[in-house]
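ARCHIVE CARD
Drawer: 12
Card no.: 0347
Subject: one protein chain, sequence and derived structure
Cross-reference: see card 0346
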Amino acid sequence: MPEHIVIAGAGIGGLTAAVALQRRGIACTIVEAAPRPTAINASILLQNNTMRVLSELDVGRRVAARGQRVVRTTIMSVTGRTLTEVKAKDVEGAVGAPALGIHRADLHEALLSRLDDGCLVTGDPVIGFETAAGEVAVHLRSGERLRGGGLVAADGIDSSVRARLHGDRPAASAGTTCLRGVTEVPAERPDEVREWWGYRLQFGIIPLPDGRSSWFALIPRPKRPVQDPGDRLTFYQRLYRRFPTQVQELLEATEPKNTIECELRHRPWRGGSGAVTLLGDAAHPMLPNLGQGAGQAIEDAAVLARRLGAAASVADAFRAYEQERRARVRWIQRQAMRMNQIASVPSGPLSTARDAVLRGLPARLERTSVMRMFDGAHT
């Protein structure tokens, strides 16, 4: 068992990795570039497989206390017809955990509360590393060097560790831009995740506790992005004027300061080398269409800790972790890309045909696909 592991990045993946390692008696230090770990002002959907892992890591109750249980996920046309849905009663028993809507900051706080004292270094980013004789020396901007048996890069889609290992090009654009918002207006159905698919537009609502709502709006990437938050929100309101009234009301009720826009990007899965490995978005950034990005980082963390607790060396553990995760992660990445393509078809007639096909899919086929996504959450 390694004496000490260094983790670059205190996002959801890095924090979960630290919790999982400490639970197995493996000491670690998390290095975060920001002055303190923070989360964007947006919600996150923790699918059933994700909540199962968090429960196995003894964090599930803390997370559930801060979130909103989801009893149904529904995708609808802009005319209000149900295209497909997943009901909690069909999933929870088989998976062993519920799905949950939660604000990202609340998930961060739940994970931070489980960390050992003194394991978090903030405001001092990783700028390089060296490996020799089964040890890693991690260089921080301040000039300090942290030594450990291994380095886990959980530093996001633009990971500096990944760049140093592989020299990758910048992540590829999916051609889609997403605006997220949080509002005090409750969702029409506070226990349901609901999406509407139109012509090149997608809008979804994730329920939050205490009468709040969080929403996301996906559009084709604009040639000239609107920079001012107020003007940008008005731009989205115009785009979604033909969507159901609930969509328009949520957009109108949201303060511009409570929105955040980003371009959706992706990269192929990559592993590490020697006593260095990658986790979460650093290894396999994926599109958000399946609600599995953070979930797969959380699964990564649990598998990584289990492998480190059993292997003869850190390098052996890292390669075993990568081997175990590779096929599942790649499959989910592909499915998320296909879902984005289906949801954003490039013409009105195609969107009409898409809706007809989705409505006609056998329930058994949909359940098989859903259960495959929820399988594989092992710690």
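Annotation on reverse: The chain has a mean pLDDT of 92. The two ends are 17 Å apart (CA to CA).
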